[in-house]
Task: inverse folding
């Protein structure tokens, strides 16, 4: 996904293991935790979704390597079509 340079840097930092709030603070970006938004289908709200993080208007989801890349991409496409904001899926290794 193509985001602004500060958002791209925050996403990079998160992917490397930085805390979301710390990464956002370093870039001067606003972030919100546990944001509830409506998901839509065919233009109508169908359910409420709680997003773990929203950074500068981008929904941020983190998938560890146990989630297959194809599954993560499928979830991204599904959520992106249901939410009125860009969705970013960050893949990180499983913590040992």
Result:
């Amino acid at each position: 996904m193509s985001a602004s340079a500060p958002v791209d840097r925050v996403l990079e930092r998160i992917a490397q293991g930085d805390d979301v709030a710390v990464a956002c603070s370093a870039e001067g970006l606003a972030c919100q935790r546990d944001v509830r938004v409506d998901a839509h289908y065919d233009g109508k709200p169908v359910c409420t979704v709680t997003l773990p993080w929203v950074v500068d208007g981008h929904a941020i989801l983190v998938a560890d390597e146990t989630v297959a890349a194809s599954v993560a991409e499928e979830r991204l496409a599904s959520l992106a079509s249901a939410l009125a904001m860009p969705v970013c899926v960050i893949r990180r290794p499983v913590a040992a």
